[in-house]
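Proteins fold reproducibly. Look at a concrete instance:
___
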Amino acid sequence: MAKIYHEKDASLDALKGKTVAIIGYGNQGHAQAQNLRDSGIDVVIGLIKDPSWSAAEKAGFKVMTIEEAAKEGDIIHILIPDEIQADVYEKGIKQGLKDGKALSFSHGFNIRFKQIVPPKNVDVFMVAPKGPGNLVRETYAQGFGVPALIAVAQNYTGKAKDVALSFAKAIGATRAGVLETTFEEETET
């Protein structure tokens, strides 16, 4: 039987002292970034120069290029469309991945189908809310949350699952329930 995690099963400890670099500020990006920040997590936003840049700045975030965010973040959370992730990873994220950092996603496609192949010396995990960004934000602000899936594809540090659970808690997902799965199951079902 699948394990479901709730508030009591997770803490924010695995994110303390870390910076999360959110790559993208669209549907999920704005919601997850705000929820993380409201949970006390240090967040930076990595973007190209487009209208999202000013929206993220207006929301009070430190905004920078994707390359800069990938260097600054301890956890690099990719929230841009699947079809451009591999190209953006190659051109702007890969160089920022250093020993012990984490690369994370909210959809498993690019890891499952090896469009992105991270180095072995980083953690790779997924936190996938099962609702649109506006609902992720709205329910968090109301003291609730949207259920999510978590998965670990690479556990270099031995702490990837703890970080994924902390991340899920910080966006409000453990309030509703977090189901542990795999990148394969999340992508193919």
